[in-house]
Structures are given as structure tokens and as C-alpha cells.
Amino acid sequence: MGGLLAALTACGRAPETADRELRFSIQGSNNDPALVKRRDGYQSYLAKVTGRPVKLFEASDYNGVIQALASGQVDVATLAGAAYANADAQVGDKIAPILTVRHADGGTGYYSALVVRADSPYRKLQDLRGKSLGYVDFNSTSGYLVPRAKMREAGVDPESFFSKTSFAGGHTQSVMALANGQFDATFVQVAGGDPEHGFTTGSIYTMAARGLVNIKDFRIIWVLGPIPDTSIVVRTDRPQADIDLLRGAMASMAYDEPDIWTGIGQPEGSSFMAIDRNYYSEIIRLRNADAAERRKGGRPGEGK
Amino acid sequence: MRELAVIASIFLLVPTAVHADPFRLASVGANAACRPLPAGAPPGLMSLHKLLSARLGVQVLDCPLADRRSAAAALASGSVDMAELDPGSYALAADNVRAILTVTPTGEPGRVPVVVAVTVASGITSLADLKGRRAVFAGSATYDFTGPRAALSDQGAGTGFFSSEIKAESAGSAAQLLRSRGADALLLNGDAWERSCRGDTPTAKPCSDLKIVWRGRPRAKTAMAVRRDMPAQIRYRLVGIYVAMHLESPEAFAAASALKPGAGSFDPTEADALSPARAVPSK
Question: Out of B195, B230, B241, whose CB is closest to A244?
């Protein structure tokens, strides 16, 4: 056994590389306690199990994470589908998604919800003709890419249907802007359930749990999904032994450290499962289609 | 350019293992000394050994052993590095070995944690206290029932342990039955418990009148096991290779999971996943 261990250490994790820091990026605001908790949880866990210092690269928006990963400034990042599709278009197989969360019931993914204020008269998408819509971010899957594709499928041209569209900059900002009357509707992520049984997580629910908004002030009028979930994405030009170690350590987290797993906000009974680029094939297709549509009709928010 | 230099420097720092000890993978069916797979070995097995050898950077040997009990003994003595065990064989070597991987069937849930809850007012403090009492499952779907039933059977609370077992429509109606004293114990998957007991406001505590008296995952039927003293970094590398095997080398995965019908992927597992008398702390 000792010989094997020495051999494996020598071949994949030499003492000289053991001190090289692991650079990790996760998008989000320091004002979001849930995000800070998750980020800190990953950092301390990875430092413990890899035996290496873990440096967090903080990015306030999706594009910051994409650029950090695409340029090689970081080794690993969490990216949602649309952001991955964007990065994939830039650097191709220099990056790869390796893990996503599998729910307790064996399913994966989350949903996008079209949300309006509960005191508004809007009950369905068609009621929003000529009204204002807030998107989360150009690189958001549930707050931009999928809603636009599904609106087109429903016969609604997102470029002309609304009087105005704008980007809030994040899911939290979208909910706050909706609550403050800055626009009439917004698409945000919802999870922890399904359309039949309702949802328990996502920005509206986590903000309500923090006392920032009242859940009763909102109404969901359209649900889209399930959408391929956020994933752990790595630079493929890093040593394979390091990628295997990272994937194994992250995948083991729900089992070896269940308190940390749920403590960082992952649902009880969920765990990471391995994925590859095929997991996002539909999102990549939607992104390319949306890019083509935008080339024809201009970017949302421009003059609308 | 700077990026290329950094990447190149990383690879230069990783020495090549030339005269390394092999990785010894147990197989069950016959007794023989560890050796490289013979030329006529099944292609899937060849793919598995090739993948492991390439990723671990060492030679991989096949170590045939008569049965899982022999494999457990070989693991415990350090004469193999990884073997598939079941609860019975694991029990023989539990002090020295741990589970690291199980196989999950395609599209099915993993081994989800199960919760047994009672009302605080009931005075019940353990699973044993519930013998002969009435249980209610939180939902009638297969998923709502199978996991909790299996986990409790592992703990000696199989069919007949409770005086009655009710399947409620939902977690909400099950909790209502518990609170109205129509049942003594609420049995549900951990995710259902979490959804039921998470409030919508900072002060909401919808389950403050309930308490958990047992929680744990169903015991695994089989698992890949290694020695407990295997360094974590090597164990995680093995896990990292195996969990993606169905994507990266389906042929190797088919060989590695050969005895599991409908196998979808390898999943990591907790150290005591095979323990037949697992003590699970409640919280």
C-alpha cells in the first residue's frame, strides 16, 4: 500500500505542485449571505481535502466569471448554462463542465418563473403586451436565454412585445426592482419543487426567508423548465490528476460532509453528479439561436 | 504567452512515475496471484484497467479472489487496494476498510437520507421507542415510500415493527396526522422534511413542535471499498475517475458495474454505507 500511495503521489500530485493554489470563481454579491456562505463553504472544504490553498476570485456579474475562466485566471468556476454556453463559444474545449447537482428524487435542473406583483392585474404572458420586462443578465439562463426562446415558441417576439426591457444585473436585483415598480414583470430562477407542487428556493423564496420581501407580494404567472442546472466548470488544460481530485472531492462532499453540504444551502438528499458538455447541448443551441435573432433585431434594452 | 508558460511549468513539475507499485484491483470468482489482465480478457475489463492505469499513472493488476469475504480480508491486510464488498463481507473488515462508491441505477434517486420525526410532546426519544406504534409515510409515490422503508428495515424496523403504516397524500397531510395524534411517527425523505420545515420568513419555524429521533441513508447493497488509511487525495482521485466513467468510457463502466442491472453511474458514498449495524446520530 505504501508503495502504491507513494507512486500515485509522485505521478499526479508532486510535492512541488502541492502548494500551488487552486483558483476558484463563483459569481455573486458579498451582500448575499447565502452566496457568501456557499463560497466560504467551498473554499474551506476544498482547502482541507486538496491540501492546497484555495483562492477565491470574486466576480460581481456572470461575465466576470466567464472571462476569468476563459482567460485561465482561474482553474475552476461555477457557471449556469447560458454562461457556460457563452464561455464555450469563446474557448471551446479549453473548459468543461464536470459536475452538477442532482436532486433527491434523481432529477436535475431548475425552473424559470415569470413573476409579477400580486397587486397587478397580469395573469398570463399575453397580459404583458406593451408593459416593461426586467431580465436578470445577458448571460443568465433562467433570467434571459430560456425565457426569450420560450416566448418565441409561444408566438411572442421579445424584441417588440414589451414597451421596454432592461437588465437588473442579478436575480436579487430583479426581484427588488419588481417590488419597487421599476418594471412590470421579471423572469427569475425558482427551484426546490416543481410547477405541480410549488417551489421553495430561488431568489424570491430566499429573499423572503431573509425578510427582504414578502412572498405574498408576488405572483408567478408562467413557469418554464426544467433547465439544466449550474455546474462546476474546469479548465481542461490543468493536470488531469488535479481535475480528478477536484471532481472526486466535490462529488464526495454531500456524503463525507453532509452538514457542510446542507450548510452551504444545497438541498438535503441532493448531491453532485458527473456531467460533460452534452449536458448543455440544448442551452448551447438556444444561445446560438438567440444570438442569430439578436443580430437580426438588435439587443434588448436598446431603444426599447 | 504568460498563460502558456504557467501551464507548461505546471506540467514540468509533475514527474512521471516509471518504477511505481501497481494498483491492485480485486475481482471475485477464483483464487490467483495478482497479475496484469491476460490478453484474452473481456474488452470491457481491458478498457477499465487501461483507463485506471492512464489516470493513476501506474500499472493496474487484477487480483482474483474466491469471494467477497476473501476480498475484504485482502483489503484489510493490504494485499489489494480496492474491492467490491457487501454488508456481510464488509463487517469482517470494518475497522480497516471503508466504502467509497456505489452504483446508482439510471434515472433513480440515490441513497437519500431518511428522517423519522415525532411530536416533541410525545416524549419519544429513539427509533426503538416506536416499536408497536403507528407510522405515517409522507406521500404515496414510490419515491416517498421505498427509501424510508428500506432505511428503517436496515435498522431492524422492518415490516411488522410498527402496528400500522399509513401512506398520506403529502408531507403536509402526514404531519397533520402526526399532530392530530392519528399517527406516532412521521417517516419521510430528507428533502421532503426540509421543504416542509423551512419557513417563508426569518422567524417562521413550522416544525418547532416536532423533533427528529432518527435520520440516515438506506444501507448500500454493495460498494467499492478501500482501506481507511488510504490518503484522502488518492481516494478522491479514484472517486473522480469512477463517477465520470459512464461518460468517459462506457465500456469500462459496463465492466466495472457488471453485476448491477440498469446501472447508470457510480456515486460517492459515506464511509459506513455498508455497515449492518450503523449507529446514526439524530439531530
Answer: B241
B89 contact A CB<8A: no
Residues B111-153 have pLDDT tens digits of 899 999 999 999 999 999 999 999 999 987 888 999 999 999 9
Q: Within this chain, do residues B59 and B151 fall inside the same structural domain, yes or no?
A: no
Say if residue B146 is in the same domain as residue B121: yes
Partners of residue A260 in chain B, C-beta under 8 Å: none
**B77 vs B72: CA distance, rounded Å:** 9
Task: Indicate the DSSP class of residue A191.
Answer: E
Q: What is the C-alpha separation between A273 and A280, in angstroms, rounded? A: 14
Cell of B236: 478522491
pLDDT < 50 stretches in chain A = 1-7, 9-17, 301-304
- Total domains in chain A come to 2
Q: Answer whether A239 sits within 8 Å of B108, measured CB to CB.
A: no
CATH code for position A251? 3.40.190.10
- Do B254 and B206 belong together in one domain? no
In a domain, A302, yes or no: no
Which residues, other chains included, contact B106 with Cβ-Cβ below 8 Å and sequence gap of 6+? B262, B263, B264, B265
Window A:253-272, CB contacts with B under 8 Å: 254-256, 258, 262, 267-271
Instruction: Provide CB contacts within 8 A for B212, sequence distance 6+.
Output: B115, B116, B117, B193, B282, B283
Classify A159 as helix, strand or coil.
coil
Residues B203-219, mean pLDDT to the nearest whole number: 92
Residues 68-87 of A with CB under 8 A from B: 71-72
Cell of residue B142, nine digits: 414510490
pLDDT at A173: 92
Residue A120 lies in a domain: yes
Please check whether residue A241 lies inside any domain of the structure: yes
**E strands of chain A, at which residues?**
22-27, 54-59, 76-79, 95-102, 110-117, 132-135, 164-167, 185-191, 201-202, 218-227, 231-235, 271-274
Residue A292 lies in a domain: no
Residues spanned by the domain of B97: 20-108+220-268
Question: How many percent of chain B have pLDDT more than 70?
Answer: 90
User: Both B90 and B121 in a single domain?
Assistant: no
Q: What is the pLDDT of residues A254-266, one digit of tens each?
A: 999 988 888 887 8
Beta-bridged to residue B227, according to DSSP, are: B97
**Residue A32: per-residue pLDDT:** 65
Tell me: do B150 and B97 sit in the same domain. Answer: no
CATH code assigned at B175: 3.40.190.10
| In a domain? residue B91 | yes
Question: Quick one: B33 and B77 in the same domain?
Answer: yes
Digit-coded pLDDT (tens) for B78-107: 999 999 999 999 999 999 999 999 999 887
